[in-house]
Amino acid sequence: MFKLRIDTSEKWTEAVLADFDRFLNDHAAAERKASGMAMSMALQYKDKPDLVSAMIDLAIEELAHFREVIKLMRERGLEMLPDIKDKYVNALRNEIRSDARNGSTKNTGRGDVERSRNKNAIDRLVVASIIEARGAERFGLIAAALPEEETKLKIFYQTITDSEDKHRNLFLDLAHQYFNPAEVDQRLDYLLDIEAKIVESLPFKAYLH
Predict the structure, then answer these.
(1) Which of 108, 152, 153, 168 is the one with CA 20 to 30 A from 177?
(2) What is the pLDDT of residue 62?
(3) What is the model's pLDDT at position 98?
(4) Residue 146 near residue 13 (C-beta atoms within 8 A)
(5) Which residues of the chain have pLDDT under 70?
(6) In b/e form, how buried is each residue of 34-73, taking b as 16+ CB within 10 angstroms?
């Protein structure tokens, strides 16, 4: 368990409630992308059976969340809009150290390639954990801020909050299981500082991030 460096501003919650239809569309897109990301990791790390199993389960769960958000949108007469680039997620992923296997390995020894692969995997897991932690915080804010008469939505977003919090722990636990815990925690500390700066730099809009 870890704590985010900064809390989300009330201005973000106000922006979401002021344009909740647009937020639902962005939420649906986020769940769909999360499912795809989990499957990508399952395929990339075939040598780590516990990770593969966890990512397959996660992909199914995120897809179920996507389905539920789409149901909510249909009840409100909404259609999915074109995707908007997620500046928050992209900025965090830019901090992920590269995997030498994805570039030229002509002058790179096998040990160096393996180390770069491990660093890349650590960062992917840690970044995913931080993204889930921010999601849990923000979905929790929505659950608390929605009016009492929106019982169905409040329950749904509290359920999503609990789910995201479990995912935060899942990614970090997998990182600790497969890699040096001290190195994982060092990267977590560094990336949490980066995440805080990213959050502070973004405008308040009716998007998850």
Answers:
(1) 108
(2) 98
(3) 86
(4) no
(5) 100-110
(6) bbebbbebbebbeebeebbebbeebbebbbebbebbbebb
- Answer for the pair 92, 195: CB distance below 8 angstroms, yes or no: yes
Say what the pLDDT of residue 108 is.
Answer: 54
**pLDDT the model gives residue 99:** 75
Q: Which token pair is 99?
A: 């995997």
The CATH code of the domain at 10-96+108-201 is 1.20.1260.10
Main-chain phi, psi angles of 28, to 5 degrees: -60, -45
Residue 140 makes CB contacts below 8 A (sequence gap 6+) with: 157, 158, 161
Picking from 97, 125, 122, 102, the residue whose alpha carbon sits closest to that of residue 179 is 122
- What are the Cα distances from residue 132, in Å, to 92, 101, 164? 12, 27, 5
